[in-house]
Amino acid sequence: MMLISVQALRALAAWVVVGHHFMQVFFNFEVHSPLEYLFADKGAAGVDVFFVISGLVIFLASADKALTPWRFMLMRVARIAPAYWFYTLLMALLIVALPAMFPNDEWVLSHVALSMLFIPAQHPAGFGIYPLLDVGWTLNFEMLFYLLFALALWVRTSYRFWVVAGLLYLVCGIISPALNLAGGFYSNDIVLEFLMGIVIGMLYRRGLCRARAWLPLLGIVGALVAIYIGADVPRSLEWGVPSAVLVISGVTLEPYFKGSRLLKMLGDCSYSVYLIHTMVLYAGRWAAEHAGISPYAMLPVCIAVTALCAFASYQWLEKGSYRVFKRWFGMDDPTRLSRQKH
């Protein structure tokens, strides 16, 4: 069962990223106030929180469970891919139907295919190694992490951290730089944040994420201050370590979050918020320009549309597609796993 504290952090991270991209889409990161600076310069740290949470959740979800690597990957693909595929195709359709709304985007069939397969590739518009739905760059890292973690399922739970760490170092620290895989995409030190999440999961399972409320609250304040101040160090240190402190502090405060249906729902919808929000923001910018509306008058409209669409997306697209995939792959059949084990 998902920790409500983690759900709250997922929701917070998603909406911070929305604020970051609002500043990008509407203002090209030009800031005129401390709040604008906060979202423009620090909002991307929401992704780092996501990565730490991903390591934590995957470790806890697989600990002491009879999961084969193949079954684990099927479950992850069934959960993550359908919504991403849907919004990637929707993005392609919108670029064709409403090119004025997406003046900096274009699509090529081969690039769409690579995007759907989670293979990093240069965007046709030439602004870097991004999939067609550009927020999907994080999912390329997620899929690599899932694959390496799937291999680690062959060993006991207590050894999985070391196996994943070794595989990440091999792929991202040696093979990727040597072969220049995807232009060095996988050499990004952000992958270390998955390992931070695994460590938090190990501590949680051992009952070590307990303390009086003042300590995790102090950790949250310290982490936020560290993110705001920043430092001239690699991203995994500048934002990754504070993100890990945020997550472990949130987990430690779990007793205070239990039973909150609102926070659970906000967390449930966070993935769809992440996938949908840039399209909503581009549409909002186009509407604001044509109607002569202030960006800040359009912001609450974009927030409301994103929230409503994300809620519908989670209820019908995410949950519905997951049920279909589980039925197709027999993941609802408890005897199937038993047969696989023999």
From TrEMBL:
Residue ranges annotated as transmembrane are 43-63, 84-102, 135-154, 161-179, 185-204, 213-231, 293-317
| Xref: InterPro entries | Acyl_transf_3_dom, Acyltransferase_3
* GO process annotations (BP): polysaccharide biosynthetic process
Q: Where is the Acyltransferase domain?
A: 5-311
List the coiled-coil residues: none
One annotated Gene Ontology cellular component of this protein: membrane
Alphabetic keyword roster: Acyltransferase, Hydrolase, Membrane, Transferase, Transmembrane, Transmembrane helix
Q: Which PANTHER family match?
A: ACETYLTRANSFERASE, BLR2367 PROTEIN
Query: What protein does this entry describe?
Result: Acyltransferase family protein
Q: What species was this sequence derived from? A: Pseudomonas antarctica
